[in-house]
Specification:
This is Nucleoside-diphosphate-sugar epimerase. GO terms for molecular function: aldehyde dehydrogenase (NAD+) activity. It comes from Brevibacillus centrosporus. InterPro entries: Epimerase_deHydtase (IPR001509), NAD(P)-bd_dom_sf (IPR036291), NAD(P)-dependent_oxidoreduct (IPR051783). By secondary structure, the chain is of the alpha/beta class. 43% of the residues lie in helices and 20% in strands. It folds into two domains: 134 residues, Rossmann fold; 105 residues, no CATH class. It has a seven-stranded parallel β-sheet with strand order 3-2-1-4-5-6-11, sandwiched between helices. A two-stranded parallel ribbon has the order 7-10. Strand 5, helix 5 and strand 6 form a beta-alpha-beta unit. Helix 1 crosses helix 7. The longest helix has 19 residues. About 3% of the residues have low confidence.
């Protein structure tokens, strides 16, 4: 299958590109730069120059492919509503050229991103095999600069490792290679209108995460209030308050997280950096 992938040179996208090619798919990756194009070509993929704001380029890439995986997102936390609006326009633009084709269109869920999700679900009624993949807050692996590394950075900067209230809220995780596998399986098999969760089984209580960080960094562990969370954790405050437990039935057929997804292993590795 020829697959158009947005965000193809990103942390998760680059793993998805390798996963797709390993299973015999041809990849056309969206990139905004010559540097990104060189990375894609070195990986054996074709480069498609464009941006999330260039809707004509997105439509061209989607129309010429046999399937689409949409991973790109503008991570501008100073204007998150603007980032969500950009994502919605991108989903609508690509969806418009896929209507009636029965081609697979896999999008990525984002916090407060109901607009894009609703647009994708509407396309499922218009001849597009849409599916939505929702990933755990911690997508860890080689090159990770996300959730866990930022928690460790905050603990170092503040001089203590924090959890909220009793710290019983659970944080889930997935390794990026397992996430890449889930995106591929969604592309290949997910029925129209599917919602798939890439997470570990039960998650880890946030107080245990804070406890591991405090031991590794040799700093105190402190309980803070929910009102203090935003100022302490910044944009991670909402995630730090959130609790998530996912049943195995929410995962794609043929996908199970591997030992790579153990959050404690990730924490121990990161905290030693």
């Amino acid at each position: 299958m020829v697959v158009f992938v947005t965000g193809a040179t990103g942390y998760i996208g680059s793993a998805v590109v390798r996963e797709l090619m390993q299973y015999g798919h041809q990849v056309v990756g969206l990139t905004r730069s010559d540097e990104g194009a060189a990375i894609l070509k070195a990986a054996g993929a074709e480069a498609h120059i464009g941006t999330l704001e260039d809707l004509a380029s997105l439509q061209s890439g989607a129309a010429s492919a046999e399937g689409v995986i949409h991973l790109a997102f503008r991570h501008d936390f100073s204007d998150f509503e603007g980032s969500l609006a950009t994502d919605l326009r991108a989903v609508e633009a690509m969806g418009a050229v896929l209507k009636g084709s029965e081609k697979p269109f896999v999008i990525t869920a984002h916090a407060n991103g109901e607009g894009s999700e609703n647009a994708a679900m509407a396309l499922a009624e218009q001849g597009v095999r849409t599916s939505i993949v929702s990933l755990a807050p911690s997508v860890h692996g080689e090159g990770d600069k996300g959730f866990v590394p930022r928690l460790i950075h905050i603990a170092r900067e503040k001089g203590f490792s924090a959890f909220i209230g009793e710290g019983s809220n659970r944080c889930t995780a997935v390794h990026r290679l397992d996430a890449a596998s889930l995106f591929r399986l969604a592309l290949e098999f997910a029925p129209a209108g599917s919602r798939l969760d890439g997470v570990d089984d039960e998650g880890v209580p946030f107080r245990d995460i804070a406890g591991i960080i405090c031991k590794q960094l040799n700093v105190p562990v402190v309980s803070i209030s929910q009102e203090e969370a935003q100022s302490h954790f910044g944009f991670l405050g909402l995630i730090a308050c959130f609790s998530r437990r996912i049943s195995a039935i929410d995962c794609a057929k043929g996908w199970t997280e591997s030992i790579r997804s153990a959050l404690f292993i990730a924490l121990l590795c990161y905290a030693n950096l």
